[in-house]
């Protein structure tokens, strides 16, 4: 609240690209070793910017998992592209890197890996495919802030990375996101796109004596009040990450008995991934069991939720995309998954109540 007051009263600048926006961007550049970071109004808008900067055109195809949030697809549909969905891995719920190559056609322009639950996709294999076929890689790292693949921050490996700072994420500004990229050739175009198609950023740096409309653009700048809220959390990023990992590890240890009995499956984190405890989920036998468990948890006063309905089965998904190959795991695994309460202020005592409720459920 002090920082928000500072933005309003002391700085006198609550629009975009104020002092707090610059602090947040600099922090991410330093901590995630990213060449460029532009704070945006949402991860959705970061994805839209990346689709534009990647040169996606009507008729192009973009490969992605169907098990993701609608924004992953929307950003490319807005550019006139077709979404080509491929199956996921049942262990991580991420795109199956072995299914991508078969889905590539002469129309394919990009691959969009989604780092589900802050657990990294197999990026070396995805990047090798992109190099082989001259494709862009746009990381949807909405859930992957402060998570890593072989020591590299998620969002910094592909051509573009997109972060979310929505209220539901580990670090929040209410609504917000960030676009990351490592090639400076995109910077001028990204600044123009983000500033309504003007060279206003150059004007504020004193590089031009007035700014004008120079290309296509929109308004992707978050308020500096929102950035002030985020800055307070980035200052405490290590503390927040430690607490979330504590809750995640508590669940993982206490629920191991149910997994050993074969009643549930627990999350899997590959050796190459350092996760950020964005969520803790379990998987049960089937949709019927999950429905009963959700009702039971609600009766216990515990809010557990399922996650995405696969995009290819939705009305818009059928209109704007297609599924390549066989849907072996996407639908089946999505129907089994249930998310447990996971947020910074959750106490271990409350997490213990969640565990006890799950242990007492009789219909696995």
Description:
This protein has two domains: 2-235, Aspartate Aminotransferase, domain 2, CATH 3.40.640.10; 237-360, Aspartate Aminotransferase, domain 1, CATH 3.90.1150. It is 39% helix and 13% strand. It has helices spanning 2-10, 19-32, 43-53, 70-77, 100-103, 123-133, 187-194, 200-204, 224-235, 237-254, 256-260, 287-299, 315-320, 330-334, 348-360, and strands spanning 36-40, 61-65, 82-86, 108-111, 136-140, 148-149, 152-153, 160-164, 177-181, 273-274, 281-283, 321-323, 337-339. The chain has an eight-stranded mixed β-sheet, sandwiched between helices. Strands 7-6-10 form a three-stranded antiparallel β-sheet, with no helix packed on it. Strand 4 (108-111), helix 6 (123-133) and strand 5 form a beta-alpha-beta unit. Helix 2 (19-32) runs parallel beside helix 9. The longest helix is centred in the C-terminal third of the chain and has 18 residues, at 237-254.
Under CATH, the topology of the largest domain can be stated as: Aspartate Aminotransferase, domain 2
Shape-level CATH architecture of the largest domain? 3-Layer(aba) Sandwich
Rg over CA atoms, rounded to whole Å, is 21 Å
What is the H/E string?
A: HHEHEHEHEHEEEEEHHHHHEEHHEHEH
Overall pLDDT score? 97
Number of H/I helices = 15
Number of strands: 13
Specify the CATH homologous superfamily of the largest domain. Type I PLP-dependent aspartate aminotransferase-like (Major domain)
Described by its quaternary structure, the protein is single chain
Major sheet attributes: 8 strands, mixed
Kindly state the percentage of residues in helix: 25-40%
Text of the CATH class of the largest domain: Alpha Beta
Percent strand: 5-15%
């Amino acid at each position: 609240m002090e920082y928000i007051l500072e933005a309003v009263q002391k700085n006198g600048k609550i629009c975009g690209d104020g002092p707090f926006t610059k602090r947040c961007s600099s922090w991410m550049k330093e901590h995630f070793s990213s060449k460029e970071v532009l704070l945006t109004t949402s991860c959705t808008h970061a994805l839209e910017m990346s689709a534009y900067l990647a040169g996606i055109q009507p008729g192009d195809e973009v490969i992605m998992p169907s098990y993701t949030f609608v924004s992953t697809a929307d950003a490319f549909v807005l550019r006139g592209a077709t979404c080509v969905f491929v199956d996921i891995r049942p262990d991580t719920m991420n795109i199956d890197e072995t299914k991508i190559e078969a889905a590539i056609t002469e129309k394919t322009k990009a691959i969009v890996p989604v780092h589900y639950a802050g657990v990294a996709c197999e990026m070396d294999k995805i990047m090798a495919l992109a190099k082989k076929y001259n494709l862009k890689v746009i990381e949807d790292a909405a859930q992957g802030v402060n998570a890593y693949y072989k020591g590299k921050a998620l969002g910094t490996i592909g051509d573009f990375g997109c972060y979310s700072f929505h209220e539901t994420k580990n670090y929040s500004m209410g609504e917000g996101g960030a676009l990351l990229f490592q090639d400076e050739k995109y910077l001028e175009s990204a600044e123009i796109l983000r500033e309504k198609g003007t060279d206003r950023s150059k004007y504020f740096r004193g590089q031009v004596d007035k700014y004008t409309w120079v290309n296509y653009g929109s308004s992707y700048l978050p308020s500096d009040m929102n950035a002030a809220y985020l800055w307070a959390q980035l200052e405490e990023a290590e503390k927040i990450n430690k607490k979330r990992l504590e809750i995640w590890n508590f669940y993982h240890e206490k629920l191991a008995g149910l997994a050993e009995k074969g009643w549930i499956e627990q999350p899997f984190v590959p050796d190459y991934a350092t996760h950020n405890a964005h969520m803790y989920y379990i998987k049960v036998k089937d949709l019927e069991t999950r429905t009963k468990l959700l009702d039971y948890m609600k009766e216990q006063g515990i809010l557990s939720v399922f996650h995405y309905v696969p995009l290819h089965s939705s009305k818009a998904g059928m209109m704007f995309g297609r599924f390549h190959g066989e849907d072996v795991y996407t639908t089946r695994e999505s129907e089994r998954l249930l998310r447990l309460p996971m947020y910074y202020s959750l106490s271990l005592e409350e997490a213990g109540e969640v565990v006890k409720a799950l242990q007492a459920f009789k219909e696995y």
